[in-house]
Please model this.
Amino acid sequence: MTRRLGGPGVAAAVLLAAIVAITLLAPLLAPYNPDLPDLFNALGGATAAHPLGGDALGRDVLSRLMYGARTTLLAPVLVICVASAAGTTLAIVAAWAGGKVDAVVSRLLDVLFSVPGIVFALVTVAVLGPGVPGVVIGLAVAYTPYVARVVRSAALRERGLPYVAAAWVQGRSATAICLRHLLPNLRPIIVAQSVSALGFAVIDVAAVSFLGLGVQPPTADWGLMVKSGLDSAMRGQPLEALSAGLLIALVVAAVNLLGDRLGRQS
Amino acid sequence: MSLLTLEGFGLAVPYGRGRRTLVEQVDLTIGRGEAVGLVGESGSGKSMTARAVIGLTPPGARVTGRIVFDGAEVPSGRALRRLRAERIAMIFQDPRAHINPVRSVGDFLTEAMIHNLGTPVRQASARAVRLLKEVGIGDGERRLRQYPHELSGGLLQRVMIASVLAVEPDLVLADEPTTALDVTSQSEVMAILDELRRERGMAMLLITHDLELAAATCDRLAVMYAGRIVEDIDGEPRHPYTRGLMRSRPSLEEAVHRLPVIPGRPVAAFEAGEGCAFGPRCDLAEPRCRETRPPFVRGVACLRAEETA
Amino acid sequence: MRFLAKRLAGLVAVLLVASFLVYGLLYLVPGGPMAFLLGNRSGTPEQIAAIRAQYHLDDPFLVRYAAWLRDAVTGDFGTSLVYRQDVSALMASRATTTVFLVVYATLLIVTGGVAMGLLAGLRGGRADGVVTLVSSAFLATPPFVVGVILVIVFALGLGWFPVFGAGSGFGDRVHHLTLPAVTLSLASAAFLARVTRASVAEESGREHVETARSRGLAEGHIVRRHVLRNAAIPVVTVAGLNVAGLIAGSVVVESIFALDGLGSLFVRAILQRDFAIVQAVVLVLVTAFVLINLVVDLCYSALDPRLSRQ
Ligand SMILES: Nc1ncnc2c1ncn2[C@@H]1O[C@H](COP(=O)(O)OP(=O)(O)O)[C@@H](O)[C@H]1O
Ligand code: SF4
Ligand SMILES: [Mg+2]
Model:
């Protein structure tokens, strides 16, 4: 595994693991209650007590960042799990059935793919109302073709290999062949493609929250913190916006790097 | 005086921290209007040698020895470009890959005339049509407007030959010009190339792995193995490798085609050990063959050449 | 020609499906369309009657859809519940800002992204390393983070650009929309730079380029006529698809810079549950994406003779 990822890949994985660990242990590690206003710390700069200062309500920015990774990361992970499952199923069905089914599914995926992900999220949010569920559903639909297109062509290639014909001759059912043989062989591609989609999903989820349509205040969330931080910056205190923004960029960079490494392997 | 001379030519490419030798100690001469065949299995360094003549070496490659063309060492920069543009032309193995797929056949044929020789566009097109006729493609005007994917491999290779004729070079480097073609067009294309070359008095270095084809076309033959010339054929082949190639060629008399292919895998120069590079595949090998590289004596590099002659 | 006709038919089909979904979504909402349209407003009987009339809520679903679609095709998207104005008029007055922003950003990605990619692909070495590093950083930074950083540095800090607004008149517009356009374009430009780099590097190594070289053609000529010409095929495709991304991204960018464009209208409509506007904007966006895709496909087959002529 280490050899496969290479030095930078391992560094990215360690960074992501550290962020996940910190946010899980936030109740133990965070110096303050993330939701507790403190008028003396409102728009405060970096001090020993508040290393990253306070937001407009005086809540401790560092503590909010520690808690904030939860929604920032969990929602995109959910999106990708759903999209990978749906995408893989569609892809295998299309590749296996071939013919008309394949043509229709491929065309559908192409059309979905041509619409940017955030548009789906905005539409579902319009129907279901602002909040995480709408965002996750919309983006899951949006990312399904991202996984499905790549997996479909890999599955087509795999399907032509002799071992599939051999299993077929031995009288195995199509479902059994797909689950026992095809799926395990496609796994590296599915994982690589899902990880690289995750980077985009983190950006999209945070962007929708930034628009005020995703995670809702007062929950601590990085996307929301960039938004409230922008107001604080107008009033002279840019620390909140900058720290939350850079963290998002760092996480996306790490995820992209991992996806890149995994993609090279498969 | 010979047109092209290679003296102790060698080529090594960067590999990891060191280098890998791909060709070494190659001596070769081609006279004006003469056709010389360079024969050997794939990986033996034939293409590298031919490309080096017009300076098309891989990035970072180190060339040793001398390549002398028409009395002067092959130059670099502007002079090299003029040499390529006017005096030495190359025909590549796979015309489909070696002709730009998004430019029309006409573009391909006239490009060099227009940009290197300064021919006006209309004249260049008219000339291209005549050249196509010479290589056996009748409806030239229509062909000029077509794109490479609309032509068969055989036709494309004729287009490539026509583009070389347009330059009227002194030397043609033909790198396996028929290998990628189907059997029927192979002999046609080879016949066209040979005939037109003779008419114009161009010299040719014909690279092929087909000894019989080379023998039928060329005035002289050199056999290459693992980056070295192992035999300059003069009469009966004496090197065990050449004999192996003879025996493995398709034969019309025998009922079974391509019978005894030389067993084993050909090696590249850097893979060869101390002794004779052909040793591991040679059925005449002796213990001494493993000790030193057999020297090139009287046209052959084999320790047992005298006994088997 | 047949190709074009086929593509146009496909386009119409996609738009029909999209419009059906957009219209039908209204009925998926818990409580039905009435509850949704009113949202948390308690309508007066007249208002409720007006909504029933506007949305033809008493007709069967398909009839209502057909009526809505007929109006939509003629540019009539109904009346906004919040603004009490024609949706088309609301959109028209805001479209200028968005179009200006997207065109500005397109120019930036095409010039900047392609230039960076060419530099990296043709020069290699150090230039390649720098471009690759910078493009990874830009790709990883979400547009809204870029926007916020640009605001903090260039508007609030250095005061070179205004923080808000779209400006009026061409020069003033350019001044106002520079930071938004840069924000919108950075990630796409980075992506385009990568694609250009990869494509140029790949095409430079092609066999036919070796042929051109063996014919003694000048290096500049080879790069222009063979490397760049062939590399343009994927670059144009990706650039086109990126423009679709820019349109979606403008929603976010307009929100950062408080620009009164279609995107901010859209976000506000979602928050205020002003569904007539949501439907109209989504339909316009989908139409734009589908049209861009068509244009990309046409460019693609114009650039690659292997596709257009068989
Ligand atoms: N660009 C290159 N860089 C490094 N090694 C190469 C390159 N091209 C070919 N080789 C190696 O050089 C050897 C000779 O290749 P080549 O001249 O193409 O042989 P031939 O034309 O006789 O088949 C082979 O072992 C091949 O793997
Ligand atoms: S030198 Fe020895 S091994 Fe090499 S070809 Fe001659 S007989 Fe065979
Ligand atoms: Mg070769």
